[in-house]
Amino acid sequence: MTTPNQHSAIAEAASLLLKGGVVALPTETVYGLAADASNTEAVKRIFAIKGRPADHPLILHIADESQLDYWAKSVPEAARLLARQFWPGPLTLILPRSEKVSDLITGGQDTVGLRIPDHPLTLSVLHEMGPHAAVAAPSANRYGRISPTTAEHVREELGNNVDLILDGGACNVGLESTIVSFAGDDVCILRPGGIPVSAIENALQRKVSMVDGSSAKVRVSGSTLSHYSPSTPLELLPQEQLWQRAGELKTAGKRFATMEWSKPDEAHSGMPEKDRISMPANAAVYGHLLYATLRTLDQGGYDYLLAEAPPQTQEWLAVADRLKRASHKD
Ligand code: TXA
Ligand code: MG
Question: Of 77, 120, 229, 303, which residue is the least packed, with the fewest Cβ within 10 Å?
């Protein structure tokens, strides 16, 4: 149920979007920077506000599965099965585009990314916009930076450049959607995310390969090597090396914080408590906190951030992917 306040915020967001405005909307993954998908000028503003290169395609967010056939030219049965099982939810399907999708959204490619986000406010905005409503929305951060998981983060990232920020609270999942492509000869995963790869494989009853987006023909912005980055240098190290590095930094008089998920090494308990962030040992909970933690640490005046490398298992893929890109040096 929406409160009267939320109801008027939803109406305002829908009306601004229909007039060509750019509105930050909450989703279960991260906040999106949305524009009416049928308004080219509005979609252009997204690229300008984010500072995003034009060849990085945007995901279309829809409210209803029946919209799939409006925006996609053809939908394989396996894609429908995933949609039925995981929507609304953190899954993006890449499908052949219909002629309704503008080149601006697809970066000129013949495919389109579609998803139904699992957030009541954003679903209400889409319903309020009318039939065939879709918003194109990348994450609401400046290009290459940490994705926002609260309305306050969006304000920090984009300030007054957006027409409205619809506050839907903290994002439940906290990491972007899993992107599954049906564009080529075979199904593949372009970006690990909120839905574990194992859940996709279980649903399809088969193994699905992972394509490293940075080597793919398609531009997948989250797959450029450096992405999701704090301004403070982030180093990703196994625990033992992390403490070696901590020793070096201490000797050099540097300020640093650590993010560990495994049992804290007591030998190093001399470090100030506030500089030792204890991260969850559960992948989903870690993922939920990752961006907010990086953002807070980035504002902590540190010279370095040292993150303990996550376990190399399938359930940690999304977290490992984000940490790798956040720590990549150009
Ligand atoms: O969870 C999410 O997916 C969030 C929320 C706001 O929905 N959105 C998001 O958007 O992460 P963005 O733009 O930050 O990342 C979308 C990714 C990009 O890497 C883009 O290249 C890829 O999806 N993408 C979009 N359309 C594509 C297409 N047709 N083919 C291949 N990749 C595509
Ligand atoms: Mg993004």
Answer: 77
- C-alpha to C-alpha distance for 236 and 224, rounded to whole angstroms: 17
- The CB of 59 under 6 Å from ligand 1? The reply is yes
Atom number in ligand 1 closest to CA 58: 25
Please state the pTM of the whole predicted model: 0.95
Lookup result for tokens 């030219």? 73
| Nearest ligand to the CA atom of 184 | 1
Q: Determine the topology of domain 234-326 in CATH.
A: Rossmann fold (3.40.50)
pLDDT at position 221: 46
Place of tokens 């994705």: 147
Q: Which atom of ligand 1 is nearest to the CA of 140?
A: 6
Measure 114 CA to ligand 2 centroid, in angstroms.
15
Strand (E) or helix (H) holding 325 = helix 317-327
Low-confidence ranges of the chain (pLDDT < 50): 221
Could you tell me which CATH number the domain at 4-210 has? 3.90.870.10
The residue to mutate among 179, 218, 226, 227, having the most atoms of ligand 1 within 8 angstroms of its beta carbon, is 179
Tokens linked to 296: 């807070």
> Which run of H or E residues covers position 151?
helix 151-158
Ligand nearest to the CA of 175: 1
The CATH 3.40.50.11030 portion of the chain extends over 234-326
Omega of the bond prior to 311 within 30 degrees of 0, cis? no
301-314: per-residue pLDDT in tens? 999 999 999 999 99
User: In the prediction, which pLDDT does 147 show?
Assistant: 97
